[in-house]
Amino acid sequence: MADHQESSLTLPSVPASVAAARRFVTGVLADWGLPSDAETIDVTRLIVSELSTNAIQHTFGQSPDFTVEVQLDRDEQLRVGVTDSHPRWPQRLPAAVQQDNGRGMVIVRFLAAESGGRVMVTPTDCGGKTVWIVLPWPRPGT
Question: Coil, strand, or helix at residue 92?
Answer without folding.
Answer: coil
